[in-house]
Design a protein that fits this description.
Enzyme class: hydrolase
Catalytic activity: alpha-D-glucosamine 6-phosphate + H2O = beta-D-fructose 6-phosphate + NH4(+)
Helix content: 25-40%
Distance between the termini: 13 Å
Strand order of the largest sheet: 1-10-9-6-2-3-5
EC number: 3.5.99.6
Family: Belongs to the glucosamine/galactosamine-6-phosphate isomerase family. NagB subfamily.
Oligomer: single chain
Structural class: alpha/beta
Strand content: 15-25%
Pathway: Amino-sugar metabolism; N-acetylneuraminate degradation; D-fructose 6-phosphate from N-acetylneuraminate: step 5/5
């Protein structure tokens, strides 16, 4: 696991962009994408670049259950706003949060991932150590699944909604086993509130209690963290 400590999110976004550009130059065709506040500056760098994605495919990590792409809190809306409207791809895939049959949608998304192996995956990390919406206790061998969101995740995401009561209680998430199949993984973490999770991910034991710790078990993982998020690391 390579750790890059940066001063702020702007610097982190620029480094993430450089890593993406290098991956594309080396043949990456399918990108695994994330949402939330963490990758916003990274997407700004991408949008303001001359990179062309019209031959590329994206596969997103997750989507809230119950929200469709017209809802401004859905992850499809987020991706359209921050990336896809400015940088069109050949294909974009996100779970369908409005699917009538969630079990069928989970199986369908596993098929999409199998047909489009991810070359370069971007991740954030939750305060409880989740990646995607794989909450503490998620088994390492799980693929796409419906998640009951933890109270801490609901509270952390409430800032994006009018009230905490409006935050969906479930999401469809790419599983840990699916994430771990990605050829290259770049995880970004910013802010003091992520420091405990970052320390556990890098220096703690590998445990289902902190899902991101599974990243210790594989190669080709780069962590970009600002000084606050990296403040508890011993080295």
């Amino acid at each position: 696991m390579k750790v890059i400590v940066v001063k702020n999110q702007l610097e982190g976004g620029k480094i993430g962009f450089d890593l993406l550009k290098e991956a594309i130059e080396n043949g990456a065709k399918t990108l695994g994408l994330a949402t939330g506040s963490t990758p916003v500056e990274f997407y700004n760098q991408v949008v303001n670049s001359d990179l062309d994605f019209t031959d590329m495919t994206s596969v997103n990590l997750d989507e809230y259950v119950g929200l469709d792409g017209s809802n401004d809190q859905s992850y499809r809306y987020f991706m359209n706003k921050h990336l896809f409207e400015e940088k069109p791809f050949k294909e974009n895939f996100l779970p369908n949060g409005k699917a009538a049959d969630l079990d069928a949608e989970v199986k369908h998304y596993d098929e999409i991932i199998a047909e489009h192996p991810i070359d370069w995956q971007i991740l954030g990390i939750g305060q409880n150590g989740h990646i995607g919406f794989n909450e503490p206790g998620t088994p390492a061998d799980i693929t796409t699944h419906v998640v009951d969101l933890e109270e801490s995740t609901i509270k952390a995401n409430a800032r994006f909604f009018e009230s905490e009561a409006d935050v969906p209680r479930q999401a469809i998430s790419m599983g840990l086993a699916s994430i771990m199949k990605s050829k290259n993984i770049v995880l970004m973490a910013y802010g003091k509130e992520k420091a405990e999770a970052v320390k556990g991910m890098i220096e703690g034991e590998v445990t289902v209690d902190l899902p991101a710790s599974i990243l210790q078990t594989r190669d080709n993982v780069t962590v970009i963290a600002d000084e606050a998020a990296a403040s508890l690391l011993s080295k």
